[in-house]
Amino acid sequence: MQERAKRYRLIVCLLYRSWTSDKTQDRRWHNAGLLGFAGIAALVALLVSNNAVKYAMLCVQTGAMYTTIPLILNWTSEVLSQPTRKRSIAIALVNSFGHTSYIYGSFLWPSAEGPRNLKGFAVSTAVLFLGVLIAALMPVIASYLPKPQPDVMLHGQELFVAGEEKLEKQDK
């Protein structure tokens, strides 16, 4: 019964973390914190030999990583908001990179290595801490990207700027 209560507390904490990210509009440190939390869980699972602790840390790691997924997708669409083609390509690349785990997962977690799974936990730890580094540096990287421009549509020689009620003559 206590194990179930611990799991529910973890779920509530992770949902709260997503809610505060939306409320504060802070994606950087929420992503870095959740990925760091998952990385610490993977590191503990790597270093201990007790299977119960490994299982608990694997649950924590999985929960923190799954909580990070919508935050990363939301952050990607916010950072690369203009133009819409760039945003859609960036989200597709983030999804594609995330789905590569289906390919390499079978090589990192072979059944012959279980229950130690040294290779799987080591790579997971490294990738999660790399994610922390990327999340912390992303605003610096994004500052070098072009600033978003308003959506514009050309109508002959006139330029319509979304949100304005009138057409303006194009400067040429």
What does it look like?
This protein has one domain (2-147). A three-stranded antiparallel beta sheet has the order 1-2-3, with no helix packed on it. It starts with a helix and ends with a strand. The chain is mostly helical and 172 residues long. It has helices at residues 2-24, 28-47, 51-79, 84-99, 101-108, 118-142; strands spanning 152-155, 158-161, 168-169. The protein is built from six helices and three strands; from the N terminus they run ααααααβββ. 70% of the residues lie in helices and 6% in strands. A hairpin with a 6-residue loop joins strand 2 and strand 3 (168-169). The model is unreliable at 165-172 (pLDDT under 50).
Please describe the topology of this protein.
Elements lengths: L1 H23 L3 H20 L3 H29 L4 H16 L1 H8 L9 H25 L9 E4 L2 E4 L6 E2 L3
Antiparallel strand pairs: 1-2, 2-3
Helix pairs in contact: 1-3, 2-3, 2-6, 3-4
